[in-house]
TrEMBL record:
The keyword Lipid biosynthesis does not apply. PROSITE patterns: TAT (PS51318). It holds the Pfam family MoCoBD_1. It comes from Methylobacterium aquaticum. This is Twin-arginine translocation pathway signal protein. InterPro entries: Ald_Oxase/Xan_DH_a/b, AldOxase/xan_DH_MoCoBD1, AldOxase/xan_DH_MoCoBD2, AldOxase/xan_DH_Mopterin-bd_sf, N-heterocyclic_Hydroxylase, OxRdtase_Mopterin-bd_su_IorB, TAT_signal.
Length: 761
């Protein structure tokens, strides 16, 4: 297979292929549009950002404030956080605030892709400005009505106040006049002093959708109902790259309720966000569609990936990391330092394919009207991507398409890839535009997803006479996300390299990181925290192994390897991507990494005595410009059964806008990270995913979750400092903390995920 280097991925190709996704933040490729000035953060995302208050704020005559949220809600609480940022700057009474969801239209709303832990990181300041601008318009309207200078009027808790006369006016009384006022220039808008925040950073605001969610009234993608709606499922090729060979259409049409059978042709590779092909069965209810699909008895040509076997491929990756690969970072002379080392250690770590497996599988409904306009509904993280892909496949103007975003029953990156929307659109077209809901079953989701890459991480270190590393070699072999967008891509792109490989912040004088090629045999997509998962597991486990070899306390050793607090320019250590952020605003601050390690160690009581059969493990990681560390307390039973008794996790994401949601995100990350550590994996035989449902793709059950999860919020800087991400950074340190705790409890070192069965063997 052809080798495609990151420099060969054109910027135009990445943006066109990836749409609104994390790939759009990749490095500017070598020699491509070199004259373009660099853009960072929200400026570097497709369609950028908006802060026009008329897009985000509406006030009714009764005073109800409606905030428009442009990001997808999938349990992370973004609708709440967006609303109270605006409400705080507006001086609104939270009891009078509600939220509406924006449809997909990035030309109007700015970037809407809910991926990469960027929602508040990119939109906190624009949202503040939007709220402050709306407040300014209310003040101006009230001042005009009273005939006084605007400087004498203030907004206070949903009312306008003229201090000199004591006059008050409710927001609703002046809302219509305020809407007619000119939108102030952002340079003239005065933001609140943080000391005056009522909601931001206070942690006393519950989910704005909580009642609807807990009473079952909230609308998710699977809840969509449209008059005259039909229902569809698809029989897809079980092997990536396969094609339909035959099917029994007549048998399917005999199933009561089935109305049509439609062939879906795949595009030429790479598939990107398009369907992989198959046969759709359209019926009057989902059950009939499923039974009709069974009656099809389809056969397939399995294509080039028919022999893919994940066990055999592991051996391929292991061979790849045992010989030199493309050097992606180099400092000093590793080979010479290795020869001088007093002790050496080599280790290989294996991380299997994973899949997002959200509780609500992908679901989308599409209707094509007689006038050619198209309306879609569904659980989607990137509505603009859905809009664009429907338009591309049907050959229509994207402006004729409206994508309505429902609540998402989980996403984790899967629902930013809208192939299921395209399937629904093709089915609607096949039945003369009638609305069709495309439903993926749990089995569909596990068998035909965009998988987190499998990887082998090989680490070698040479230690001096004090047990400290003087040489460090890390080779990482994994199929790349780039293969989903560029045929034949088999080297990791800068985004993946910058997730714990090239940007390791250790104070080691001689370091070399290499990236051997690895071919993809399945669709590779992003998953919560992406390549940080294998890198954190490997690096933090290896550091723990080195600490044991040196006879040192693991926490103290980790801090010593990180070295003294210092500011590192990411570009100078080979990470020019830096999560798409300006390296001058987001340098790597090892002091902050040290702080979360110290905070979690203190919170967990590091060094305390634990019962026999138990152990404590520690790990830390930097991802999405945020610093996290975890301590796990694990008990291993006589038959190798693992119980995670307690996890402490610390985070420094800068100032925390919504502490309650930060805690919830970290608690969820711990539970998810525990599942990845102990039970979750996708394996392949004969090109087919083996796991079918939650009985074989095992996530953490309620009874298995840690009895205690303590979240330690570490404040990083003032409100004028940029924010970090929150949704993803909590996952990476959990698995290595558990692995290190298992070693502390048993003396057994586990170097592959999932770990549960390795102890009972």
């Amino acid at each position: 297979m052809q080798t495609v280097s990151p420099g060969q991925l054109s910027r135009r190709g990445l943006l066109a292929g990836a749409g609104a996704l994390v790939l759009a933040l990749s490095l500017k490729p070598q020699g491509a549009l070199a004259a373009d000035p660099p853009k960072f953060g929200a400026d570097g995302m497709p369609h950028g950002w908006r802060d026009d208050p008329t897009l985000f704020v509406a006030i009714a005559p009764d005073g109800t404030v409606t905030v428009t949220c442009t990001r997808a809600e999938m349990g992370q609480g973004v609708r709440t956080s967006v609303a109270f940022v605006i409400a705080d700057e507006l001086e609104a009474d939270w009891a009078k605030v509600k939220v509406t969801q924006a449809h997909g239209d990035e030309e109007r709303f700015g970037n809407q892709d809910t991926d990469g832990s960027r929602s508040l990181r990119h939109f906190f300041m624009p949202l503040r400005r939007a709220g402050a601008a709306a407040r300014t318009m209310l003040v101006a309207a009230a001042a005009k009505q009273w005939g006084v200078p605007a400087s004498e009027v203030t907004a206070e808790n949903h009312a306008l106040v003229h201090a000199k006369t004591g006059r008050r006016m409710a927001f609703g009384d002046v809302a219509q006049a305020a809407a007619a006022m000119p939108v102030p220039d952002r340079s003239t808008v005065t933001l609140k002093d943080p000391s005056a925040f009522r909601y931001i950073g206070k942690g006393r605001v519950g989910l704005i959708d909580n009642v609807g969610i807990t009473t079952g009234k909230a609308q998710y993608g699977l809840d969509t109902r449209v008059e005259g709606m039909l229902y569809a499922v698809v029989a897809r090729p079980p092997v990536f790259g396969g094609k339909v060979k035959s099917f029994d259409e007549a048998a399917a049409l005999k199933v009561p309720g089935v109305v049509k059978v439609v062939t879906i042709d795949p595009p030429a590779p790479p598939y990107e966000f398009m369907p992989t092909g198959g046969v759709a069965v359209i019926a009057r209810n989902t059950w009939a569609a499923i039974k009709g699909r069974e009656a099809l008895k389809p056969t397939f040509e399995d294509g080039p990936n028919a022999a893919y076997d994940s066990d055999a491929y592991r051996a391929t990756l292991e061979q790849a990391v045992r010989k030199p690969g493309k050097v992606v970072r180099q400092e000093g002379d590793v080979d010479a330092a290795m020869k001088k080392a007093v002790k050496r250690l080599e280790a290989e770590y294996y991380i299997p394919h994973l899949v997002q497996a959200p509780m609500e599988p992908p679901a989308a409904t599409v209707r094509i009207a007689k006038d050619g306009t198209i309306e879609a509904w569904g659980c989607v993280q990137s509505p603009q991507a859905a809009r664009d892909r429907i338009a591309k496949r049907l050959g229509v103007d994207p402006k004729t398409i409206t994508v309505n975003v429902t609540l998402l029953g989980g996403g984790f990156g899967r629902k930013s890839k809208p192939d299921y929307f395209v399937e629904a659109a093709l089915c609607s077209k096949a039945v003369d535009g009638a609305p069709v809901k495309m439903t993926w079953t749990r089995e569909d989701d596990l068998h035909h997803g965009y998988y987190h890459t499998v990887s082998v991480e090989r680490l070698e270190a040479g230690l001096d006479d004090k047990g400290m590393p003087i040489a460090w070699l890390h080779r990482s072999a994994a199929p790349t996300i780039g293969s989903t967008f560029v045929a034949g891509a088999n080297e990791q792109i800068p985004i993946e390299l910058g997730m714990g490989l090239v940007n390791v912040p250790f104070a080691i004088p001689n370091m070399r990181m290499e990236n051997p090629p690895a071919d993809a045999h399945v669709r590779i997509g992003w998953f919560r925290s992406v390549s940080n998962i294998p890198r954190a597991f490997a690096v933090q486990s290896f550091i723990n192994e080195l600490a044991h070899m040196a006879g040192r306390d693991p926490k103290d050793y980790l801090l010593d390897v990180i070295g003294p607090a210092r500011i590192i320019d990411p570009v100078k250590i080979g990470d020019a991507w830096n999560y798409g952020e300006d390296p001058s605003r987001y340098p790597f601050d090892t002091g902050r990494l040290r702080n979360v390690i110290e905070a979690v160690a203190k919170g967990a009581g590091w060094g305390r005595k634990v019962e026999k059969g138990r152990g404590l493990g520690i790990a830390a990681h930097y991802s999405f410009v945020t610093y996290t560390a975890a301590v796990a307390e694990v008990e291993v039973g006589p038959k190798g059964e693992v119980t995670v008794q307690r996890v402490d996790i610390a985070i420094d994401s800068g100032q925390q806008v919504n502490p309650e949601r930060v805690r919830s995100q970290l608690e969820g990350a711990v539970v998810m990270g525990m599942g990845l550590a102990l039970t979750a994996q996708i394996t392949f035989k004969n090109g087919r995913a083996v796991q079918d449902n939650y009985d074989t793709y095992e996530l953490t059950r309620i009874n298995e979750a840690p009895k205690i999860i303590n979240v330690h919020l570490v404040q990083g800087g003032s409100w004028d400092k940029p924010l970090g991400g929150v949704g993803e950074p909590g996952v990476p340190p959990v698995a290595p903390a558990i692995a290190n705790a298992i070693f502390a409890a048993t003396g057994r070192r586990i170097r592959q995920l999932p770990m549960r069965d390795k102890l009972s063997a």
